[in-house]
Write a structure and sequence with these properties.
single chain; 259 residues; mainly alpha; 0% strand; globular
């Protein structure tokens, strides 16, 4: 047990050091630093808010549009950025892997942690601004929100680890994934509600676990927002499967990457 705790302590220090390095790498070169992330998120939300106003779309199921879009963009960004950052984490941080204390899993964990913390801070700030402007922001189900906040980065990590390992055998995956993520952006409920469609289309959309997480997060903030057909269990099973496969593949391909 003493050796186990010592190993975990070393891994914790390694991950914290990698998080600091990732923070500097991602935001250190930008003049605005972390503020640039806030500006990017606010701009994206404003664009889609303007589009909804232009087409005459009202508040979706009684939820303010600002809260609807902030939650959608926040959860989506955690998952999509985690996948993309894990995909090239090993290639970008290859020199660090020469140190015996640093593993490929540590590099991916640190990247996902930075993305999650950053987006959580950005979402809280945007929701606070919305509340200060008189927009209703009310938490309905704290337990559901905590579950979604836990599953979103884990889902991104599991999917990213799996794809990162598969790149060793199929290098073209690294070019295909960005294209697939662009498609998923438009079918994951970032700027629409799944219940706005008929049953036939909604059933197809519900195959996407990302849609479930985004819709359930919105349901945690509104009594009136419908989450019919959305399942936390389905997302949990998908996340567990991806993490299990990702961890197994990561160990399997590690010797092949070292060649």
């Amino acid at each position: 047990m003493g050796a186990l705790w010592q190993g975990l302590a070393v891994q914790r220090r390694v991950i914290l050091a990698l998080m600091l390095r990732e923070t500097h790498t991602i935001y250190g070169d930008a003049r605005l630093g972390y503020l640039w992330v806030l500006i990017q998120s606010a701009f994206g939300i404003a664009v889609f808010w303007g589009m909804r106003v232009f087409v005459g779309a009202g508040d979706p199921h009684g939820m303010p549009v600002a809260v609807f879009l902030i939650l959608g963009f926040g959860v989506w960004t955690v998952m999509s950025d985690s996948i993309s950052k894990c995909l090239n984490a090993v290639r970008v941080n290859q020199p660090l892997l020469t140190f015996p204390q640093v593993t490929e899993l540590d590099v991916m964990l640190s990247r996902v942690a930075v993305i999650f913390v950053t987006q959580l801070v950005v979402s809280v700030l945007l929701l606070s601004v919305a509340y200060a402007l008189g927009i209703e922001v009310r938490l309905n189900d704290a337990g559901l929100l905590y579950a979604c906040l836990l599953l979103a980065p884990l889902f991104g990590l599991g999917c990213g680890m799996t794809l990162s390992a598969l790149v060793v055998f199929i290098p073209s995956i690294e070019r295909i994934v960005p294209l697939v993520m662009r498609l998923l952006f438009f079918v994951s409920g970032v700027f629409f509600s799944a219940n706005s469609f008929g049953n036939d289309i909604a059933e197809i959309l519900r195959l996407n676990p990302m849609l479930h997480l985004i819709e359930l997060t919105r349901g945690a903030f509104s009594f009136s927002y419908p989450v019919d057909g959305m399942s936390l269990g389905y997302v949990s099973i998908c996340t567990l499967c991806l993490l299990s496969v990702g961890l197994l593949l990561e160990r399997y391909v590690r010797p092949r990457r070292e060649r």
